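Hi V.,

You were right to ask for the full record rather than a summary. Here it is.
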Amino acid sequence: MKITEAARQKAFIFSLYMTSAVIVTSFPLYFDSLGFSKVQIGLLYSAGPIVGIAANLFWGVLGDRYRAIRRILSIVLAGQLAMSLSLFTSSMFSVLMALMIGFFFFQTPTSALNDSLTLLTLRKTEQSYASFRV
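Predicted structure:
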């Protein structure tokens, strides 16, 4: 049985959001286990929206300019993996803040890049956008 591009994209969307949910929700528990206060944990997470503005623009422009959404998404996912693994190597707040900034630089644009890839896949099928997202 041949797996279609649409089926691969749907499986990718499912795995992307599942792993993001697991990773992002486990960080506060990890930071709490290191003894950080709720304020420090909030500060670590506040980097996300700030970095996300620039990261979405940066990766989106690269993806559009080079017409390489898949390649850019692969780079972003590899960077996200590297940053998330690096987070477990330190317990210093300043180092973790820098690593969280790096993590969010790679994590934030995954949704937008995935949506672009989904829209490109939709051009080749007769399926609706909602069928991919559900």
